[in-house]
Amino acid sequence: PAVAQVVTFAMPHDKLGEEVASAVVLREGQSASEADIRGFAATRLADFKVPRKVVILDEIPKGATGKLQRIGLAAKLGLGWCASQSSAPAPSAAIARRTMSCWR
Fold it and tell me: What is the 3-state secondary structure of the chain?
């Protein structure tokens, strides 16, 4: 109930390939922790669908067309083993290319 907006995305995992992660924006005046959100999701979703990592943000990144940015979001947020490959900020297309190469 505290969540205003959420996007789920693939987070690279060095042994499993990918895991589910989510970026969450809370409603104004509401609070929730990562554990609260994962616990809520666990009562409604199968275990493999429950995000392994929940990142609480002020705003979910959007592209030029206003759509939520899923591709490369893990790298942009510094999640997963691929994020450590480059610490310098990069344009969205470069992030997507770098992230896709990590998943192979």
Answer: CCEEEEEEEEEEECCCEEEEEEEEEECCCCCCCHHHHHHHHHCCCCHHHCCCEEEEECCCCECCCCCECCCCHHHHCCCCHHHHHCCCCCCHHHHHHHHHHHHC
Residues paired with residue 99 on neighbouring β-strands, in sequence order: none
25, 4 contact by CB (below 8 A): yes
The residues facing 9 across adjacent strands are: 21
Helix (H, G, I), strand (E, B) or coil at 88: coil
Q: Which residues does residue 54 pair with via DSSP β-bridges, in sequence order?
A: 22
- pLDDT tens-digit map of 3-45: 999 999 998 888 878 899 999 999 999 999 999 999 999 999 9
Sheet holding 17-26, edge to edge: 3-13, 17-26, 53-57
The Cβ of residue 57 has, within 10 Å, a number of other Cβ atoms equal to 13
